[in-house]
Design a protein that fits this description.
CATH superfamily of the largest domain: Umud Fragment, subunit A
Distance between the termini: 8 Å
Order of helices and strands: HEEEEEEHH
GO biological process, one term: signal peptide processing
CATH class of the largest domain: Mainly Beta
Shape: elongated
Helix content: 40-55%
Structural class: alpha+beta
Number of helices: 3
Radius of gyration: 25 Å
Strand content: 15-25%
CATH architecture of the largest domain: Ribbon
CATH topology of the largest domain: Umud Fragment, subunit A
EC number: 3.4.21.89
Number of domains: 2
Strand order of the largest sheet: 1-2-6-3-4-5
Keywords: Hydrolase, Membrane, Transmembrane, Transmembrane helix
Subcellular location: Membrane
GO molecular function: serine-type endopeptidase activity; signal peptidase activity
Amino acid sequence: MRCMKSSSVPGWLSWTGQVVSWLVILGVGALFAVALLVPRLAGATPYVIETGSMTPKLPPGTLVVVKPVAPEQIAPGDVITYQIKSGDPTVVTHRVIDQGVDMTGQVRWHTQGDANDAADEGWVLPQQVKGREWYAVPYVGYVTSFVTGQQRGVLIAVVVLGLLGYAANQFRGSLKERRAKTETVETS
C-alpha cells in the first residue's frame, strides 16, 4: 500500500483555480480571434479608433473592423474608414451623413464624426474608402495599438505558445490528480 502525500490546497480551491485559468485562456483566445484571425479570414481590416470623434458609439481604443464594399452599398448612416487623401496611409473612421454624385456620375460622400459639431471638409471618393464597419469591439484597440507590424506577429506567437503550454501544464496536472485519486481508491 502506497502512502499518498496530502495536498495543502483544498480541492475546491484547486478546482476554482483551474476554472479561472481556462476562462482566461479561452478569453484571450477569443480576443485574438476577434481582433486578428476573423478579420484576416474574412478579408477585412482592423483599425483602432484613436480620437473621441466617434463617441459614444466608438470611443477611443475601440477596435473597428471594416470590410471592403462596393460604392453603391455605402449609404448615409454607415460608418466608413477612408484615407484622408487618396494614396495617403492616414485613415479616418466617420459616419456618412450625405451622398452625392459628381458630374462624371461617380458617387461620393460627406462624413462627420458622431461627436463633431461640423461635417468633414470635402467629399470622400470611392478610391479613398477602405471599407464599411463590419463590427467593433470597445477598448480592444488599446491592446493592439501598443505593438505594430512584425512585433505583433512575434507577440501573438509567443502568447499563443505560452497559453498552449500553460493549458498543457494544467491538463497534465489534472491528469496526475486523477491518477493519484484512482491509485488511492484502488489501494484502499
